[in-house]
Design a protein that fits this description.
Structural class: alpha/beta
Mean pLDDT: 75
Helix content: 10-25%
CATH class of the domain at 4-147: Alpha Beta
Order of helices and strands: EHEHHEHEEHEEEEEEEEEEEEEEEE
CATH architecture of the domain at 4-147: 3-Layer(aba) Sandwich
Strand content: 25-35%
């Protein structure tokens, strides 16, 4: 069984480090996972304890968040020779027997070699894994496969979703102009979905009644939806509230290419996408587990939205943030640096241990996208039943 060291910044990725420690300890055993807050005793020399622990470890997981290099004040902490994260990573890179696995948290990107001090310059050579609140189980499974220990993780969420999501009743409201009409590239979306319950499709594309999920099967056209969590006329919620919290939105969404979509903080957890909604003042709606569950977190904003930095207004709806395949796999867009297969980047992570690569092909009424099992090097085209923008 491998021994694993977790390196992280407390101000940046503490929630994910805690979740990852608990998840790995449950699969590898607590004695096989090292994290500073749990295994460094009072009065111990921190730097020496790190060096000693890394010399005994097989794998060093380096959690890289948005402020790993530079803090919120613009200070490059990584340049400080006494920076503890720098000491940890440098020690891991010096140990030839230690496998270094960078983990990019919530859209963070791998630093360039030129951005790093000399003792960390080799870090970008190592292939990274992405970790987000939406795809915690998929990332954990990749880590387990990489480090070669433990059993596959069940479908569960990363720290933003600590409790299991209860599936609500299969009801919803639909407002649409042309049921089943596909979205042409650069054209307006013809079908608008307003969710109030679990996922599914209107009558037409998959033959199921409105408000109920149809069984997987042939379709005549891919359905394209705009995620709409409130009724435009009344402003009433069309989603079930999973939780209410206070937070702030700090940047445009990097998942949903919409001018009303944002990346938002609640505590030290990032939610993306979160949507402005008709009838909700100083609040945003963050769907839980994709658009299918019909549930959402409601964030009361403590500061105004950074409107000057919003995404362009509906830029052709080029990239869907959620996709459902005809076979029923439900997939959400990934962000940040990701691996490639056959020259195509990993773009979506799905239920049923499926990954999607590249962008959907929209040249026919039924869109397609390359897909394959997690960690596979063999991919093929699969038809798309629905896409959410």
């Amino acid at each position: 069984m491998p021994d694993v060291f977790i390196s992280y910044r407390r101000q940046d990725t503490a929630g994910y480090a805690r979740w990852l420690y608990d998840a790995l300890a449950a699969r590898l055993g607590e004695g096989h996972v090292f994290i500073d807050v749990d295994t460094i005793g009072p009065g111990e020399d921190f730097a020496q304890r790190i060096q000693d622990s890394l010399s005994l470890c097989d794998v060093a997981i380096v959690l890289i968040g948005r402020h790993w290099l530079v803090d919120e004040a613009g200070v490059r902490r990584i340049d400080d020779p006494e920076d503890l994260v720098r000491l940890e990573v440098a020690a891991a890179l010096r140990e030839n027997r230690v496998r270094v696995v960078p983990v990019l948290v919530e859209g963070a990107t791998m630093p360039a070699r030129s951005d790093l001090p000399g003792d960390l310059a080799d870090l970008p050579r190592f292939n990274a894994i992405e970790l987000s609140a939406q795809h915690g189980a998929a990332a954990l499974n990749r880590l387990l496969a990489t480090i070669g220990g433990g059993r596959a993780a069940p479908t569960q969420a990363a720290p933003a979703r600590p409790e299991p999501i209860q599936r609500p009743s299969r009801t919803r409201r639909l407002a649409y102009a042309a049921a089943g009409a596909p979205v042409a590239a650069g054209a307006a979306v013809a079908l608008i979905l307003a969710l109030s319950g679990s996922g599914g499709h209107p009558s037409g594309p998959r033959g199921g009644p409105a408000g109920h999920a149809a069984a997987p099967g042939p379709i005549s056209a891919t359905s394209a939806f705009i995620y709409t969590p409130t009724d435009a006329a009344s402003g009433s919620l069309l989603v079930k509230v999973h939780s209410n919290a206070s937070g702030h939105c700090f940047a445009p969404s990097i998942v949903a290419a919409r001018s009303d979509a944002w990346r938002c903080f609640v505590g030290n957890i990032i939610h993306d996408p979160c949507f402005e909604a008709a009838g909700l003042s100083a609040k945003v709606v963050c769907p839980v587990s994709g658009p299918w569950s019909g549930t959402a977190d409601i964030i009361a904003l403590t500061t105004p939205l950074p409107g000057g930095s919003a995404n362009p207004s509906r830029p052709g709806m080029q990239v869907a943030w959620a996709i459902e395949l005809v076979d029923g796999s439900k997939c959400e867009l990934l962000s940040g640096a990701v691996p490639t297969v056959a020259g195509l980047p990993l773009s979506y992570s799905c239920t049923d241990h499926v990954d999607l690569y590249g962008k959907p092909s929209r040249s026919a009424a039924v869109w397609t996208i390359f897909a394959g099992p997690e960690n596979s090097t063999s991919i093929g085209k699969r038809p798309i039943a629905a896409a959410w923008f």
